[in-house]
Design a protein that fits this description.
The protein is 28% helix and 23% strand. It is an alpha/beta fold. Strands 3-17-18-19-21-20 form a 6-stranded mixed beta sheet, covered by helices on one side. GO terms for molecular function: DNA binding; nucleotidyltransferase activity.
């Protein structure tokens, strides 16, 4: 116990007693650490304000728990912000709101039905139908498919060519159609025979001679198939993706509802207070590392250098993505490695006070099946780390971050390899492979647009994987070569492997929306 904290802890305990509260020693130590940087007068002021906040929370018992203290401190840090507005928040994938498209009113509406991991069998098709409805409504709004409008006396035929989107049932009801464009799921219902399927039926595709647009066309993704239909088969001339849509256009169909998740009832994207904070906090950074193998001594050495280096200029958050140990190891060994991770920050007091340490597990980490979204690492395995670094947060995979008005998705998945193994057509221009990757997930509006056999998904929680409306930044922890690519106002960043890339990592600067490549050198002396 730090001797400097003892008088302050006594002061906290006495102040709380006078206000009718009881506080445990570990919680008084936590609060003392938060107040230690202030002088005596400031501490008394903060103590008064904190106890007033606790009284307004209407606690059920006089015992003040850690969660209530953190809530009080977080609310006090939001001076100048409205209720529910936070500067930085981690959003659990299992709490991401689910919206359904209402065809009648042409709006997305919040679905408040309870969700569960072992859900009803009907959800196996329902989650794909909801994904289809999301893609259909934005496709129909695109200039190529929206009804032609006569402007300034110019007829529709003189304007750009328009396409009429057909449904499978329209094709099946006729024997031939010269020009047909169908939106549907690319699926293989018979061995070696591909179909495009929508809620009205399925049509066989003839892909010989088809021109593939940019992207990875895997079974399980949604495609726009253009060609001519004859006797039950659509001879495809061109195969592309549903068009992407800027986030500003998409949000108009959600109203002011909070589509991102978090405590706020309204979307924080338009908060004037947060916009000002984002603009003025030019030194704020978020650090991303993937493939952080805590069971390798060289990795632990590099992390120690990272923590010491950032102690003088703490970032908003350091995001570590797994796997944290070799998959063949005993699961409980992870506990010892996480304890050791907490020990690496010894002496880095400013870092531990000001920076959130976020752990995102991979499919190889223990206690959860290889299904997305994946539950976080259990607290029982990270108890030592949580004690050593109180601002540690155990995240789901994927998870969402909110910094001021910016929306960030973080996912640890070797998705590039899955795309390359499962695509029907490998892109000819391999020098632009990262552009094909980014375009695939942006146009599909989903993190894993691939067959469920290649990457299973919890049916009831599929909206946690949606990328609609598009976020500001998508951070993939893929072990392939690092890259970044921007599509329709959304930046797709791959961190690469911390181990394989000579300990390289990425630093995101929200104020300028830029990404910096960083690396821990072999010798800092």
């Amino acid at each position: 116990m730090d001797v400097d904290l003892l008088p302050l802890r006594k002061r906290i305990t006495n102040t709380f007693k006078l206000c009718g509260f009881l506080i445990r020693s570990e919680n008084s130590s936590y609060l003392a650490e938060q107040l230690l940087p202030f002088d005596a007068a400031e501490r008394d002021k903060w103590l008064t304000v904190i106890t007033e906040n606790l009284q307004s929370q209407k606690l059920l018992t006089p015992h003040v728990e850690r969660a209530a203290l953190e809530k009080a401190i977080n609310e006090l840090n939001r001076v100048g912000l409205d209720e529910g507005e936070t500067v930085f928040a981690l959003i659990d994938a299992f709490t991401v709101p689910r919206f359904r498209y209402n065809q009648r009113v042409k709006k997305f509406e919040l679905d408040t039905q309870p969700r569960q991991l072992l859900t009803a069998p009907r959800m196996k098709s329902d989650y794909m139908q909801q994904r289809y409805a999301m893609l259909l409504q934005k496709t129909l709004r695109h200039d190529l498919f929206a009804p032609a409008v006569i402007q300034d006396g110019v007829g529709a035929e003189a304007q750009a060519k328009k396409f009429k989107l057909q449904f499978a049932e329209n094709l099946l009801a006729t024997s031939t159609m010269r020009e047909a464009v169908v939106l549907g799921l690319l699926t293989q219902l018979k061995e070696g025979k591909f179909y495009v399927e929508d809620p009205t039926g399925c049509v066989q595709l003839d892909l010989t001679g088809a021109r593939f647009h940019a992207g990875f066309f895997c079974e399980g993704c949604f495609v726009l198939a253009e060609g001519h239909y004859n006797n039950g088969v659509l001879k495809v001339d061109g195969l592309g993706f549903p068009p992407a849509e800027p986030a500003s256009s998409s949000r108009a169909f959600f109203g002011t509802a909070n589509t991102w998740g978090g405590e706020s009832a309204k979307l924080l994207k338009y908060s004037a207070g947060l916009q000002e904070l984002e603009r003025t906090n030019t030194e704020t950074t978020i650090v991303f590392l993937s493939d952080v193998r805590l069971d390798l001594p060289v990795v632990m050495d590099k992390l120690r250098q990272l923590f010491v280096g950032y102690d003088s200029c703490p970032p908003q958050a350091i995001v570590l993505m797994g796997p944290f140990t070799a998959s063949t190891r005993n699961h409980h060994e992870l506990r010892h490695h996480l304890d050791a991770l907490g020990g690496l920050a010894a002496g880095c007091e400013q870092l531990k006070k000001q920076t959130d340490l976020i752990l995102v597990p991979s499919s190889e980490d223990p206690t959860a099946p290889n299904i997305l979204p994946r539950a976080p690492i259990p607290e029982c395995l990270a108890a030592g780390l949580l004690k050593a670094w109180p601002r540690t947060q155990l995240a789901t995979n994927p998870c969402r971050l909110q910094y001021c008005t910016q929306q960030i998705v973080v996912c640890r998945l070797d998705l590039m390899a899955k795309f390359c193994r499962n695509t029907l057509h490998f892109p000819e221009d391999t020098s632009q492979i990262e552009q094909h990757f980014a375009r695939t997930i942006v146009c599909q509006g989903h993190l894993v647009p691939i067959h469920p056999i290649a990457m299973p998904v919890h049916w009831d929680y599929d909206p946690a994987l949606w990328l609609y409306p598009l976020p500001d930044l998508i951070v993939m922890g893929d072990s392939c070569q690092s890259f970044s690519s921007s599509q329709h106002g959304c930046t797709v960043l791959n961190t690469g492997s911390f181990v394989k890339s000579k300990f390289a990592f990425k630093v995101y600067i929200p104020a300028t929306r830029t990404i910096e490549d960083s690396e821990i050198p072999d010798d800092l002396e």
